[in-house]
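so ive been stuck on this for like two days lol. basically i have the seq below and the ligand is pyridoxal-5'-phosphate, smiles is in there too. i just want the complex predicted, nothing fancy, no docking runs or whatever. if the output looks off dont worry ill sanity check it later, just need somthing to start from for the group meeting slides
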Amino acid sequence: MNVKPNIEPMKPYTPGKRAPGGIKLSSNENPLGPSPVAVDALRTAAESMHIYPDQLGEPLLHSLSDTLDLDPSRLIIGNGSDELMVLACAAYLDRGENSISARHTFSQYEYATRLFAAEYRPVPMQNYRFDADAILSATGAETRIVWLCNPNNPTGTAMPPAEIDRILRSLDPATLVILDEAYHDYLDDDELRLDTRRLVDRYPNLLALRTFSKVYGLAALRIGYGFGSAEVIEGMRRVKQPFNANGAAIAAAHAALGDRGHYERSLEVNRTGKRRLYERFAALDVEYLETQANFVTIRLPSDATPFAAQMLDEGVAVRPLASFGLPEWVRVTVGTHEQLDRFFEVFEPALERARRRRVPGGGGT
Ligand SMILES: Cc1ncc(COP(=O)(O)O)c(C=O)c1O
């Protein structure tokens, strides 16, 4: 059976690996797990699993509408923000058109683009950051979508708000800008803080995407949301499946939103853990990128794929970044104190071995 020509070059997604019985620092999940309040809500939701969920994701839709002070018509709930990327392309991208993003970023932008037989154009980055000039100079008459990942996976970098504004100001209003904010909760540099809520009022062609998979710890449930103008959201609602987000996920996400204590604790674990990673990487003379997310990306002396495979054998899963076009880099999710103890126990000897292998006559195996 031949797949369609646009599907031909596509490969199944490579997920972060897991080490059975070990620790998983490969997919940027919340190391504290979900809020206990969300777990209770999930148990309660089990009692009504024979009933279809609300089509638009009530009661979550209304709690998000209150939190963001946005009319519900400007919000859409999805089966993960991944699904919302596909819905945006289903509604707004066609054969012969293109979408633009950066060279080292989340793979689902390319996936969603190719699904609709459109062309994906990755442009160079500057210092591992999205580069507004490169993006603007790549856009043309056929450009329908610009993807911005802010903070970016896998580099952890964020764009200055003025640069995002400049992109929005400069683009044709018929081009949809999709601002993927999966990691925005973790952003802790005040100069990089973006007022996305205000921005969607100013630019009707802006769609912001967020997820419950990261700081809210609900990755397995698959739930995220998008917000923008009622017009953009209405187009996406037309193409979505009737019950795209499941009832259990809606209930758990609704409960998770209300647990500020768990949210703040999760951010604190991240702040402490990332400082520790920076300090230790600096002491080990390992190049790292300062992050605005819940992971730190580092450069190794050589190919990171066998390095990560070796760490996995020793029970620590990290993410090698060859599939992101960064073959010598690894992304490490910020874990709990105990997880990071274990991480360094395995990482330091592995680094030592990798360095010996690289130095001619270094006596490595
Ligand atoms: C940048 C980015 N966007 C979106 C997602 C996916 O989010 P979801 O689990 O809501 O589909 C991820 C997951 O790792 C991500 O890194």
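The first strand starts at residue 23 and ends at 24. Residues 28, 80-82, 106, 149, 153, 180, 182, 211, 213, 219, 224 surround pyridoxal-5'-phosphate (CB under 6 Å).
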